Amino acid sequence: MSAVSKMKKELLSDPVFSMAAEQFDRVADVLELDEELRDRCKWPKRISTVACPIRRDNGTVETFFGHRVQHHLSRGPTKGGLRYHPKVSVGEVAALAMWMNWKCALAGLPYGGGKGGIQCDPTMMSIGEQERLTRRFTMEMIPFIGVEVDVMAPDMGTNEQTMAWILDTYSTHAGHLVPGIVTGKPVDLQGTEGRTEATGRGVGFLVYRMLDKLNIRCSEATAVIQGFGNVGRHAAITLANYGVKVIGISDVRGAVWNDKGLSVEDLCKHVDSHGSVVGFPESESIDPEEMLIQLCDVLVPAAVDMVIHKGNAAELKCRLLAEAANGPTTPEADRIIEERGDITIIPDILCNSGGVIVSYFEWVQNLQRFNWSRAEVIAKLETQLEHSLERVLQVQKRRGLTPRVAATALGVEETAKAKSKRGLFP
Q1: Is the CB of residue 46 less than 8 Å from the CB of residue 69?
Q2: Is the pTM of this model over 0.90?
Q3: Which one is catalytic: 79, 115, 185, 245?
Q4: Distance, CA of 389 to CA of 117 (rounded, Å)
Q5: Complete edge-to-edge strand list for the sheet that includes strand 320-322
Q6: Are 267 and 260 in contact (CB under 8 A)?
Q7: Is residue 213 flagged as an active site residue?
Q8: Are strands 245-251 and 254-257 parallel, antiparallel or unpaired?
Q9: What's residue 4's pLDDT?
Q10: In 10 A of CB 280, how many CB atoms?
Q11: Homologous superfamily in CATH for domain 198-351
Q12: Which CATH architecture is the domain 3-179 placed in?
């Protein structure tokens, strides 16, 4: 077996990458891509795995493994988050990089898709250990990253402090400040206003626009949100500001429910004090899995992948499925939802694109050495999301496609055009 065949087999054995590949293959068939171009668009440009030994606080040395996948560089530098999680795998990172590629192309951003991850549990590490791990990973990745090569951002288990450590490590190596090496960094280090809430706010804005198209008044709509991390939190805040009644929210420890509506503002305070939605007053406990199939107008999976599957897709009772997480709906569930015909999906590569759009704004500001106000950033974000939404809806209607296939087709088509026009280097 050749090295290429072995790599393909290993990637396809990962359930998350297999799901992303199946989505791509379906779209490639719709676009009638020839086999050579299909292969060039599907497989990652570069996969890097590095060993990151660090000294723990107890004096022992432990080695962690970090991965970075750069899916394509045909339209610009790769762009994507860096996550810290015990279950990070090369296949998962490759799938996320592929989705990010289509997401950037759909939004019209001059990026390819990238993603990174380190197999670790940040909740079991001190701040000092996290810093040492981040700096070691950055040093190992320096040959493969750069302002015009690959730009990282926060993801699951990382935050603006993580980005500050990467910025400092890379800048120290370069001998001068390089703010554009990461996005999602602190505003004090030339980050941008509006980046922290960008993904969740974008989810809320797109839900608001789609409710209007479905002739559902926000003041009469109900929402259930799975996941109350950064994205779920800001999606809940934004939906509440639009007048949507949030009736159910879950996190890793449990879920809370109130038919009359949860006070999102008070819930945020409760989570800040207690670390979880569990125990929130004026609510009742509900099984997180059962919460997903309760009657509501909007269901927002904002946590992990593959939570909407063949086992629960037929039981969903929402009108609108807004995919704030990456890959929350399996292909089997997609087929069930298509056959039902009573649920509208805002696909993940559109729904959660607010984060990378504002990351692009941050990168541009860094290149120009010119800062925008928060109001300017939010206005530009909503304009960009509206444009992307209309593009998807037009292609969906014109070609008779599902929202996911329409959105992915736009992303894949942009990448295929770039590769075709650039040609194949001898």
Answers
A1: yes
A2: yes
A3: 115
A4: 29
A5: 284-285, 254-257, 245-251, 222-226, 298-301, 320-322, 344-346
A6: no
A7: no
A8: antiparallel
A9: 66
A10: 22
A11: NAD(P)-binding Rossmann-like Domain (3.40.50.720)
A12: 3-Layer(aba) Sandwich (3.40)
